[in-house]
């Protein structure tokens, strides 16, 4: 997929909204950043660590190199999350929270305006970006793993820039020329980043991509899948931002983290199952047509089977582990290319 699609109105809409979002972010953050730029710099190492750690994690979840063919969509998703998302979300959240305060009163708003607004606004902004990229990348982006990766990258872009805004705002709470508060905020954001935007939008992205790509499903089924995964991400966002009991704030965070990881593990297990089904179908297709032998391709289905295959090769005289790994990656990429060109997406 080429990132430049001049004949697509959706592509130009994507570019315009990303530009406007960036402009809105700069206009809203600049006055604060002018006062707290030292705090932003103090928090920058933790922001970069967030990008590297969770960027690695999102890519590591892709066990069969599905990302190989969709690098451009993943980059476009990340850019949407980083450029369009935070600026629009900051503007909309401010207005939403005032509306909630006016409708429900100050006592209710203190605890609930932030989780309600964030679950609505931020998930919607990120979800629109996932939808736009998924639509532009049809039929390249069409499997649950594609949705998880695209949503994860989009959420990660949002998460990284949001961390910068937190560092800037932390400076307003700290003593003059004292970056300690920003450093603490950076550490907390890094530690709690495991259940942050990358995860929430990865879950929503599964439903969005399947709703866009699965033209062989009925409209009702596509709507059900979209609602299930999108609302799951939004509900987890609301639950994370909801106030903790005053007597057990730390315990509540730990409990939520464990619960969220368990929920994600269940969904991820299903996604991996669908990916392996698709992979086996491609291998069977290639074998029946005499394009490739079954033996070596069948060993690629998991990390464990690939490791066992390398060990068997070394016992037969092949000792170069780097070459073995490289060959397996080449074969995985070949399966991804072949499957994308020959098989329709399967559940």
What's the layout of helices and strands?
Blueprint: H1 9-60, H2 71-104, H3 106-136, H4 144-171, H5 180-191, H6 197-213, H7 219-241, H8 249-288, H9 294-298, H10 303-315, H11 321-342
Helix pairs in contact: 1-2, 1-4, 1-5, 2-3, 2-4, 3-4, 3-6, 3-7, 4-5, 4-6, 6-7, 8-11, 10-11
Keywords: Hydrolase, Membrane, Metalloprotease, Protease, Transmembrane, Transmembrane helix
Pfam families: PrsW-protease (PF13367)
Protein name: PrsW family intramembrane metalloprotease
Outline the structure in words:
Keywords: Hydrolase, Membrane, Metalloprotease, Protease, Transmembrane, Transmembrane helix. InterPro entries: PrsW. GO terms for molecular function: metallopeptidase activity. One of its GO terms (biological process) is proteolysis. It holds the Pfam family PrsW-protease. The protein has 2 domains: about 10-245, no CATH class; about 260-345, no CATH class. The model has no long low-confidence stretch (mean pLDDT about 90). With about 350 residues, the chain is mainly α. About 80% of the residues lie in helices and about 0% in strands. Helix 1 packs across helix 2 and helix 2 packs across helix 4 (about 145-170).
